[in-house]
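Researcher: We're teaching a course module on how sequence relates to structure. For the next exercise, students receive a sequence and then see the predicted structure as tokens, so they can try to spot secondary structure elements on their own. Here is the exercise chain.
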Amino acid sequence: MISVLLSSVYSFAQVQTKEDSLKLKEFEAVSIVGGSTKKVPGSGEAIDALALSKMNQPDINKVLRTIPGVNIRDEEGFGLRPNIGLRGVPVNRSAKITLMEDGVLIAPAPYADPSAYYFPTFARMQGIEVLKGSCQIKYGPYTIGGAVNLLSTPIPNSFKGLIQLNYGSFGTNQQRIWIGDSQTNFDYVFEVNRLASLGFKELDGGGNTGFDRRDFVGKVRWHTSQNAKIRQSLTFKFVRSEEEGNETYLGLTYADFQDNPLRRYAGTQKDILNMNHTHLTLSHVLFPTKSLSIHTTAYYSETFRDWARANSFGGQSINSILADPIANQTEYQIMTGQTDGSIIYRSAARFYYSKGIQTALNQHFKTGNLVHKIQLGIRYHEDQADRYGTQSTYAMTNGTMSMTTAGIQGNQENQIRNAKSVAAYFNYELVIKGFKLIPGIRYEYIEFEFLNYGTADYERIGTNLASANNFISVFLPGVSASYDITQKMNVFAGVHKGFSPPGMPSVTSTTGQAREEEAINYELGYRYSSNGFNLQTVGFLSDYSNILGSDNVSGGGAGTGDMFNAGNATIQGIEFSAEYHFVPSKLNHPEFKIPVRLTYTFTDARFDETFVNGGGDWGTGTINEGDMIPFITPHLGMLSVGVEHKKFNAMVSGRYAGLTRTTPGQNEVTVPGSNENFSDVNAIEAYTILDLSANYHFNKMWTVYTTVNNLTNNRRIVANLPQGYRPAMPFAMNLGVKINL
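Model: And here is the predicted structure for the students to work with:
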């Protein structure tokens, strides 16, 4: 399942012409593992198009869980807005990892407002790469945990296309069509994808709890002829994505979860997410000589997101109601539609833009037995988040919400967040026989500007403007090394200084401006590969000097957006993966295999200082030295067993998430039970989810497939955030067909 991103995946199985070679190098330009994870002197994992086609999984959460070192918190059940962490960094909104599509930053505002409310539609991707450790310092700004790069549909070498249709439980459906071709000097691929569902939640009084997401993607490329002295290409890519989601932040109390985990309260009937995203890139690849390549990309994106939802019932906050629904019985009954009352409803409109230009130079040469490779990169980047939050009043009457007072735009939040950055890196790779050494350094210069106009200055005249600026300059050195003990065995090690920006400067915080997060990161790993058996084990340690916390509603906080430092911390662990393709001895037929894959991650994440926390995702009160950092699951595992033949394949996978603390601590845990007080619970119990995927190939053109999620219909709690307990998607089956053109 997990494999090197082989060139065959992108129609480069046999590079025979200079033109094909050019296209292969263009693929390497958008890849962050360089075409082979086995060559990476660190923890690099890639899932190729062939593996994804066997899984038929539009939920990136399920796919990423096959990679060790990845921590994920489920939310809405479809994986549309994943919460991803790598090696113990916070998972909330994937804000502490570097997210890319085809090597370009993809979060709406990765510096100014990094929460990834927009995430590319995974159903249209043909590959995914994950880099951890010192080998990923080229990809920032978040270099402690690592980087995730999604690979979109590539331009094929000859005319090809795909029609994919499926339908299943809860009215979930997908329609995907792409066609592409390569000519003498002009190539293209165009893709349309729609993914939609009525949703599996059961809204009090009835209603749609699903979503409808549509994507249109196009790539057009000009390139020189194969006989040109200087080879080059120019590629224009555009993405347009639109979504309407009947989604809410509000989960359930424990008692209601036990009664019906799929329930949604009447108070969420007006909750809705509207979003659209436009992304443009223009990429130039130049090969002045056989040993020198220069890849330059200019990019621009705009994102609009408005997640409107109920914020309080009967004058009481949702968190207070969940913490003790008995003491807040009237407010709880308004929330559930049993009693009439007032509701505060907030529309959180945000406009983002992100733009920049980046250039990477790669030069390789030989001196005797030594192979040298020099990599230089520089990026200029700007982004902005323009927040207009509007508060209105609704009335709950006989279980139905109706507006009573329309708010004026900006009466709840009215601010602009700006960021500018210059980032550069230098890597030098030295190879002699089986030994590889890569020292490198990254530099980041960042300017933050925060403009808060206040909730009374709707026109942004500046009468009550509160502003703050912050400037950061940091050097981040690192070194990694690997050695091939034999052709089958390899060891690697690395150490690098990791970094995360501190977010916007605060104009209200009483604790001062948060400092950037820094950590010295170490890893030591071993790989073995022989006759279909692959094994990798890695030990890692991150020594934080000023770990960052945040205050966001999506993470359980009050929603100020403030960042704060919590001093020293240590996150360490082990990552293990092994896979083998059995060939039954009685059949002894190479076309019949039983692939088995096992992954396991152990993570120990603890605060190293005692301090008083001022609020946010880690709660309030004293946090003691040795307390576990919440929402980082210590034990994660995945086991998959399949059967493969040239005509069909099937796979059952089980993913295990161990007991997870939801508040800092180190002693006795309290999991959800008969105790109704949400605030007294400090952990979520372990759970296991089983999924199935199967494909049958009638011929090279026609394939039918099925996926079954949650085979055993596990009804355990998988998350308690943003607000209340949440279930996994229940038993669900999809049937589909793929037609290769």
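Model: If you want an answer key for the exercise: The CA atoms of residues 205 and 494 lie 57 Å apart. The domain at 7-740 is CATH 2.40.170.20 (Maltoporin; Chain A).
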